[in-house]
Design goal:
binds coenzyme A, 180 residues, Aminopeptidase
Amino acid sequence: MPDPDVAGTVRFPTGYRIERLRSDHPRRACCSGQSRVDDWLATAALHNQDKHLSATKVLIGEDDSITGFYTLATAQVDFTDLPPDLIRRLPRRHLPVAVLAWFGLDEHHQGQGIGCRLLAQALRDCYDASQTFPVVAVILDCIDDTVKAFYQRWDFRELPGHGQRLYLSWMQLEAMMAGA
Ligand SMILES: CC(C)(COP(=O)(O)OP(=O)(O)OC[C@H]1O[C@@H](n2cnc3c(N)ncnc32)[C@H](O)[C@@H]1OP(=O)(O)O)[C@@H](O)C(=O)NCCC(=O)NCCS
């Protein structure tokens, strides 16, 4: 697993703070280099949050700009879509998962380890929420093949038959939070 201490409080560079997305955040100024990711933040993230379909957290820099963001949601997946190690001893039905639906960092801040910290914070949120609303895994759909390597460093694995869909089991998540 990369550096950030996911088992404790995630540390961002001095002056940075995490906030729940609000209408006064400058949502159109964050440019990750992936237009689909940026368009989501600019036009859809707040609407979806208002409808309780997803929740978006933004990383705010010292100048109050959005340095990065992530969107979390929940979903259900059929147990047949999950790998054998994960569904062992689970009921044969749809199972609850957390979804890292969107994730991006402004281009000016990429390559400095901040993305890693933001992912650590997103996983910490998934873990905390799962103490109240349990999930069997965190899943995500990679926007392209190159970014897959970024997630695989965190032990995300490919879901069989879904090349771009990755998962992290609740066992892995718990082990991470325990600092294992
Ligand atoms: C993916 C993203 C959030 C990573 O943020 P970042 O701050 O640049 O990442 P970090 O600096 O924390 O990188 C940590 C490590 O992952 C690697 N990495 C970063 N982005 C990567 C990518 N797209 N593909 C493969 N490896 C990547 C880095 O090289 C670094 O490795 P190192 O520690 O050996 O140097 C950022 O590149 C981004 O916003 N990309 C555009 C939007 C996007 O693709 N979102 C994901 C949608 S599924």
